[in-house]
Amino acid sequence: MQCGSFELLKKSTQCGARLGRLHTTRGVVDTPVFMPVGTQGSVKSISTEQIRDTKAQIILANSYHIYLRPGLEIIKKAGGIQKFNSWNGPMLTDSGGFQIFSLNSFRKINSEGVEFRSHIDGSKHFLSPEISMKIQKAIGADIIMCFDECTPYPSTFEYAKNSMLLSLEWAKRCKDEFYNDDSKNTQALFGIVQGSIFKDLRKESALKMRDMDFVGYAVGGVSVGESKEEMMNVVEATVPYLPENKARYLMGVGMPEDIWNSVERGIDMFDCVIPTRNGRNGQAFTSTGKVNIKNGEYKEKFEPLDPECDCQACRGYTKAYLNHLFRSQEILALTLLSLHNIHFMIKLTDKIKKALETDTFLEAKKEFFTKYYSNK
Q: What domains, with CATH codes, occur in the chain?
C-alpha cells in the first residue's frame, strides 16, 4: 500500500468514531492513535527504549528544531532521523509552521514564506513551502506535513480568511515540490485545514484541501487559546468535508477529554506535548483523575501512582517516593512521570479501540469519565 494510506476497518453505530489502520513505510499504525512528541528528535527525558516499552506506534519530530540543530547535514550523514535517534519505527514531522507562529515578534510573513530569527542564536532564516518540503524529505519521516500559517487566536474573520487562503496556496506549492521526485514512494504528505474558529472558513478550507487530493488530512490551528467548546465546534465544522477513506489528524491536542470527544467526532490521530510537559512539572494522569504528586498529601502514600497502570513508575515506585523525588529535584522524577503519562495516553487509545471493536464507544466513554472525575 502507498505510504500514508488509510484503511477504514469499522465505524461506530453510535457516533462518528472510527477504527482504522494507517500504512507507512516502516510499519502499520492502528487508529485511533496518540503520538508522543519528540520535538528535537527525542521525547523529553525518556529514552527510545522506554518509548518502545509504552507500545507507542509512531512518534513526532519537529522540522524547525531539527533544521536548526543538529542541522540537515548531520541527519543526512546519519541516514535519516530514525537511524539518528534509533527509533526505526513510523515517524511524523510537522512543518515548523507552529513553531514559527509561536516566535511572533521574530518573524515576518509574506506570500513567499516566512523570514524568522533562530531562537538559539538569533541568526536569520527563510522558510517557504518548497524549503519546508526539502527539509522534511531530508529528515526522512514517513509522514510529513504541508507548510501553513497557524492562525493566531483570537483573529478577525478577515485575518483568518487571508491566513487560510495563504495556507491553501502554500499547500499547492508543497504538493508540487513533494511530487517532483520519488519521495512519494517512501513518504506521505498530509494537507492541513485552517480557518480559525469560523465554520464557513473551515468548510471552504476542507473542501479545497480535499480537491487537492492529499494522502491524509490534518485539522490545524487548534489548541492555541480557544475554549474546548470552540475546539469541538471546529472539529464538527471540518470532519464532514474530509474524505472518509483518509486519515484525520487533530494537531497538538492530547488531553484525555479532548481525545474521547474528538474520536467521537471522527478524528483518528493525535499528538501533544502535554503528557511529558505536565509530567516534568509533577502532574500525572491516572484512572481516577489528575494527581499533582508534589503536593504534601502524598508524602506518606505508600501505594502505586495508579493501581490500574503497569508502567515502570507504577510497578516499581510509590506515590511517597515519587513525591520525594520531585521535592528533592531528582531527574528521575521527570522521567518516571513523563513515562507514566505517555503510557496512560497509549492505554487510553487502546481502550478506545477495544470499545470500537465491540461498538460500545459511548458506554466506554461514560465509564472512563465516571471514574476519571470521581475524586473531584
A: 6-272 (3.20.20.105), 280-372 (no CATH)
* Model confidence pTM above 0.85: yes
Taking CA 24 as the corner, what is the angle to CA 21 and CA 25, rounded to the nearest 5 degrees? 150
Active-site residue list: 94, 271
Q: What is the pLDDT of residues 280-317, one digit of tens each?
A: 999 999 999 999 999 999 999 999 999 999 999 999 99
Count Cα neighbours of 224 within 13 Å in the Cβ-side half-sphere.
Answer: 23
Cell of 22: 494507517
Rounded to 5 degrees, φ, ψ at 222 are -115, 170
Query: Which residue is associated with the grid cell 466513554?
Result: 365
As a whole number of angstroms, the distance between CA 50 and CA 65 comes to: 22
**Nine-digit cell at 128?**
517557504
Cβ-contact 37, 63 below 8 angstroms = no
30 by Cβ neighbours in 10 Å (0-12 / 13-18 / 19+) ranks as middle
